[in-house]
Design brief:
By secondary structure, this protein is α+β, with helices and mostly antiparallel strands. Helix content is 35%, strand content 41%.
Length: 127
């Protein structure tokens, strides 16, 4: 075999392997994002409803369907009266921006997952 043929076969093989690795990575990322969205919806459907105080709100560089992404620093009050701090990254519809100000009380839902609590904002945007 000539050197040119070996080089062409090596380049094609490398391209196929690289393409396969990229496709696997993309599918894993899409699957992970889908699972995260399903968890968020599950928390909003089945979670315990309560209130939280906004200590800080920071706009992130992301957006979803034209809605700005924000990071909320919250103190959540559990149904038994105890509180816990959390940070939630979510998207806010423009019609609800006035509700999401420092010091305001908002409605949230949470689930307990062992010692960890997962929180979602009730008025946030979830596609």
């Amino acid at each position: 075999m000539s050197t040119t043929l070996i080089t062409v076969i090596a380049v094609i093989g490398f391209g196929i392997i690289t393409g396969a690795i990229i496709m696997i990575t993309v599918f894993r990322l899409l699957h992970s994002a889908k699972q995260k969205q399903q968890l968020r919806k599950s928390i909003l459907m089945e979670g315990i409803s309560t209130e939280a105080i906004i200590h800080d709100i920071i706009q992130t560089s992301s957006s979803m369907d034209g809605r700005p992404g924000v990071r909320l620093d919250l103190t959540v009050t559990q149904v038994d009266g105890r509180t816990f701090p959390t940070i939630v990254e979510t998207y806010i519809p423009f019609t609800h921006i006035s509700q999401f100000q420092k010091g305001n009380v908002i409605n949230v839902r949470y689930i307990a997952d062992g010692n960890e609590r997962k929180v979602e904002v009730e008025d946030a945007y979830i596609p």
